[in-house]
Amino acid sequence: MNEIYTLQRGRTPLLLSLPHAGTVIPPSIAQKLQPRALQTEDTDWHLDKLYGFAAELGASVIVPRHSRYVVDLNRPSDNQPMYAGANNTELCPTRFFSGDALYRDGQAPDEAEVRQRVATYWQPYHDALRAELDRLRDAHGHALLWDGHSIQSELPWLFEGKLPDLNLGTASGNACAPTLRAALAEVLQSQTDFTVAIDGRFKGGHITRHYGRPAERIHAVQLEQCWSSYMREAPPYAWDATLAARVQPLLRRLLQTMLAWRP
Question: Pseudo-torsion of CA 28, 78, 200, 231, nearest 10°?
């Protein structure tokens, strides 16, 4: 059993990545954090359950074991900010999404520790993601990457106002073919149960931007969705079966649209 991630290999060109679904914090890091951090409140909660149907569709699924507080798998390893001019969390975050300090005084990781975490936790996940995309492309002629995320609907330190329920990001159309972006956008915009944004505040993080290379037959998209679409936003951040049952058919339709698409 891999200690860094789980990878379930599927039979179609689609790979589902859930890079912020992990919750494990090693004791050597946990002792440096504020006690509040041990609740891992900024996790993309329950996404492996929300997308539980993906394997049934034949998708490969990769999920990390460790919390984003250890290292953020959706940030570049050189720690360049994803959104210039806005508040950002780092490769090894030092703040909660509320803006409060994540670490005890003087305990934030130095550059050497950041590099060690990249080597131990970040690189193995990305090596596996890269290898699986290459395998899928070799087997099917193209590979499809769905990067799944979720977030609290209101976070004043990071965003102004309430976020749309479902936010599709394609790096402004650079990470996938235009026809794929259009097909997914049509699915989202043809329904009225959830508010939608296409390449708005969330244009896709490092994974979408780095691996989405249409010219190399790898097409990537990110979906960032509000917790309020499938779970309770207050601690203990519980799964809500009634809410989830409303959004899962739409998520299934999006993945089916991706699988039905042809270059």
Answer: -10
